[in-house]
Amino acid sequence: MTALLETRGVWQRFGGLVANSDVSISVGRGEIVGLIGPNGAGKSTLFNLIAGVLPPTQGSILFDGEDVTHMPAAARCQRGIGRTFQVVKSFETMTVIDNVIVGALVRNTVMREARRKAHEVLEFTGLAARADVLASDLVPAEKRRLEVARALATEPKLLLLDEVLTGLTPTEAQTGVALVRKVRDAGITVLMVEHVMEIVMPLVDRAIVLDLGKVLVEGKPSDVVRDPKVIKAYLGD
Ligand code: ADP
Ligand code: MG
């Protein structure tokens, strides 16, 4: 069976800076794949290329059997690519439920249906009790969960998570880990960026390490953490 997502020889240049350099990765259906690497490695840039925020300078992106390289972000979201942002982009002056309805409207143009979907997602993510509070009143861990909830409301096949577990207390991070597993068990493929290896490695089926814009190593988490190239990249961070 073909991969759900594939990037083929993807490059992203910002002027003289090469943020992604010949990146070819694939994510199989039902996998949780970790995209890790030091700060500035190019992880968020690759997410932006996959989600369609930016067109790659070179290379192609295939999703669910289709070449989406030149497809706008909204169309990719319709195809089933859902994402969170490293910098939380919730609408602070809106309630939690309304934030999630914004996501649900991508698929359900009937307001009543979108609201029903949003409530379902809030139950799923453990935010139901916070439905009517303003997003600005959530604690940071809840804001991260709201980001996930809004992405889930778009009913993705692939969920891109950018550092949703970073900066949380150990207990909050474990709640986050459990949510990611639950997402996968619901049949959604996950590609997650994390800077902190200790959090992601026990969770992912496969890890891909980016360093200086390039794929440094990929494989089973237990092999990746022992790889001398990976240790060197992190120590040099
Ligand atoms: P990571 O998410 O792995 O920390 P990023 O993808 O955010 O890394 O950044 C990779 C490199 O690209 C960094 O050097 C960053 O400064 C640069 N970069 C990212 N986005 C832009 C942009 N829009 N314009 C110019 N440089 C950028
Ligand atoms: Mg980043």
UniProtKB/TrEMBL annotation:
The keyword Nucleotide-binding applies. Transmembrane segments: none annotated. Keywords: ATP-binding, Nucleotide-binding, Transport. GO terms for cellular component: plasma membrane. InterPro entries: AAA+_ATPase, ABC_AA/LPS_Transport, ABC_transporter-like_ATP-bd, BCA_ABC_TP_C, P-loop_NTPase. One of its GO terms (biological process) is L-alanine transport. One of its GO terms (molecular function) is ATP hydrolysis activity. Residues 5-237 form the ABC transporter domain. The keyword Cell membrane does not apply. Involved in beta-(1-->2)glucan export. Transmembrane domains (TMD) form a pore in the inner membrane and the ATP-binding domain (NBD) is responsible for energy generation. This is ABC transporter ATP-binding protein. It comes from Bradyrhizobium frederickii.
